Amino acid sequence: MTLTAERRAPGPPGVLEESQVRAMFDRIARLYDRMNTVMTAGMHHQWRRRAADLAGVGPGSRALDVATGTGDLAFELAGRVAPGGEVVATDFSERMLEIARAKASERAVSGEAREAAVRFELANALSLPHREGEFDAATVGFGARNFSDLEAGLREMTRVVRPGGHIVVLEITSPQRPPLSTFFELWFDRVVPAIGRIAGDAQAYSYLPSSVRRFPGPAELAEAMSRCGLVRIGYIITAGGIIALHVGEVAG
């Protein structure tokens, strides 16, 4: 959910400036988890687990989750790097980070999971405040489509991961064949905005379908990852063609 800090000229319909996107995610922070569950029938947790698996981290590893939102992918990583590891999770929405930190506190008190600590930081994905090669892996779940410069964000993630480490991108993608493509269009063009209106933020949930349409398809995203210095790139299409998980290795 992170965009570049520079101000951009107004784009085509459905495209928002960085300040508008940040304000939008600040507004919907308290609805975000519930809306994700409704829109995905709870499947988003499974997809994040698969993304964490692809990161290839284990006990003692250091992982970075970019555009973390309310922290669910970061928590998946935290379970994999314990004991002795660390997860840093960044986002540009302070309200989202407030929810994530509250969830982390609840998890610690309840003892529901033996996890490494997660450190939540306010940061811009296009200018990460971390050293080169600082992490063993970096992930982004449902946030890359909000980068104002996709390749700049991917290059930053690549920069902060050591050679041989992994970059994982989990995103919604548009299915190309009916009947799922027809259902997808109906769901995202009509049902999701209607849910947003009921929830009290029609703009936010009209932005979602437009951001999915603008995002590169799986093959194009793999090519972009290659241009950003990643090798051995692969991707998995799941959920009937709605979800794409990409993984690439940082070149030595």
User: What is the residue-mean pLDDT, rounded to a whole number?
Assistant: 86
CATH topology: Rossmann fold
> CATH top level?
Alpha Beta
Name the shape in a single word.
Answer: globular
Beta-strand portion reads 15-25%
Q: Outline the biggest β-sheet.
A: 7 strands, mixed
- For this structure, the quaternary state is single chain
The stretches of 5 or more residues where confidence is low (pLDDT under 50) are 1-14
Q: How far apart lie the N and C ends?
A: 29 Å
Q: How many domains make up the 3D coordinates?
A: 1
Structural class: alpha/beta
Summarize the structure.
The protein is an alpha/beta fold.
Provide the fold topology:
Blueprint: H1 18-40, H2 44-55, E1 62-66, H3 72-81, E2 86-91, H4 94-110, E3 118-122, E4 135-141, H5 150-159, E5 161-172, H6 180-199, H7 202-214, H8 218-227, E6 230-238, E7 243-250
Please provide a written account of the structure:
The chain has helices at residues 18-40, 44-55, 72-81, 94-110, 150-159, 180-199, 202-214, 218-227, and strands spanning 62-66, 86-91, 118-122, 135-141, 161-172, 230-238, 243-250. It is 46% helix and 21% strand. Helix 1 (18-40) packs across helix 4 and helix 2 (44-55) crosses helix 3 (72-81). It is an alpha/beta fold and 252 residues long. It has 8 helices and 7 strands, in the order ααβαβαββαβαααββ. The model is unreliable at 1-14 (pLDDT under 50). The chain has one domain: Rossmann fold (3-Layer(aba) Sandwich).
